[in-house]
Amino acid sequence: MQHHVNAFAQVEPALRLPDLKQALYDDPIFLPTTVVGLHGDEHKEKRRVVQSLFTREFFRQYQNRVFPKALAETLAPAVAAGGGDMSKFAYRVLVNLVADAAGLDRDGSEAQTDHIQMIIGKLGKAPTIGQMLSGSRDAAVAEIAEALELFKTDYYLHSAARRRELIARKRADPSVELPRDMLTCMLQAYDGSVDDDQLVRDTAFFILAGAFTQANALQNTIWEILTWCRSHPEARAELLTNPELLQKFIWESLRLHPASPVARRKALCPMHLPDQTEVAEGDIVDINIATANRDPSVFGPDAEAFNPDRELPRRVQLYGMSFGAGMHACVGRILAAGMPVAIGATDGGETEYGTLYLVIHALLTEGIDFHPTQAPTIDESTTRKHFHSFPFIFRGKEIA
Question: What does pTM read for this prediction?
Answer without folding.
Answer: 0.91
